[in-house]
């Protein structure tokens, strides 16, 4: 596909360069696009998707790396167990829920706070 080749070339044509899950001239669907990229390729890819978005291309970006999502996406949809929880601009959602970051907001909404407590308990086992 031509768009895939263009994205690969823009990111340095590395074998680990991101590949869209599905793409057309007007939009792309990307699933975990930064997986396996080195730091320079990731920076280049983030710049590329921001450029494409400014040019009017719609990009559906599915990722668990929420700090990146918060920086590069104009709209965020949070889904948990098949249920739509939130839909809006990342900065507005974070401010409305007083969460500080999108990652903390996601954790609050999906019950991840329990995982943080477990991690703290586990960390205690490393202390002398």
Topology, element by element:
Layout: H1 2-10, E1 22-23, E2 27-31, H2 39-54, E3 58-62, H3 66-72, E4 76-80, E5 83-88, H4 90-96, H5 102-110, H6 113-124
Parallel strand pairs: 2-3
Antiparallel strand pairs: 1-2, 4-5
Number of domains: 2
Shape: globular
Specify the biggest β-sheet.
Answer: 3 strands, mixed
- Overall mean pLDDT stands at 79
In terms of per-residue confidence, which ranges show pLDDT below 50 for 5 or more consecutive residues?
Answer: 1-18
Q: Count every helix, treating DSSP H or I runs of 4 or more residues as helices.
A: 6
User: What letter string, H or E per element, gives the SSE order?
Assistant: HEEHEHEEHHH
Instruction: Determine the strand fraction and express it as a percent band.
Output: 15-25%
Q: In percent, how helical is the residue content? A: 40-55%
Strand-pairing-aware structural class: alpha+beta
Gyration radius over CA:
17 Å
Give the strand tally: 5
Please state how the strands of the largest beta sheet are arranged side by side: 1-2-3
Give the CA-CA distance, first to last residue: 56 Å
Molecular structure report:
It is a single chain. This protein has 128 residues and is of the alpha+beta class. It folds into two domains: 1-63, no CATH class; 73-128, no CATH class. The protein is 47% helix and 18% strand. It has six helices and five strands. It has helices at 2-10, 39-54, 66-72, 90-96, 102-110, 113-124, and strands spanning 22-23, 27-31, 58-62, 76-80, 83-88. The protein is globular and about 55 Å long. The protein starts with a helix and ends with a helix. Residues 1-18 have low confidence and may be disordered.
């Amino acid at each position: 596909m031509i768009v895939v080749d263009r994205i690969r070339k823009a990111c340095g044509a590395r074998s680990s360069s991101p590949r869209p899950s599905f793409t057309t001239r007007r939009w792309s669907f990307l699933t975990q696009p930064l997986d396996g990229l080195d730091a320079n390729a990731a920076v280049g890819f983030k710049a590329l998707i921001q450029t494409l978005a400014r040019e009017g291309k719609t990009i559906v970006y599915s990722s668990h790396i929420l700090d990146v999502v918060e920086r590069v996406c104009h709209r965020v949809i949070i889904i948990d167990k098949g249920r739509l929880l939130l839909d809006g601009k990342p900065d507005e959602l974070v401010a409305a829920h007083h969460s500080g970051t999108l990652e903390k907001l996601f954790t609050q909404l999906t019950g991840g706070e329990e995982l943080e407590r477990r991690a703290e308990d586990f960390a205690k086992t490393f202390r002398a």
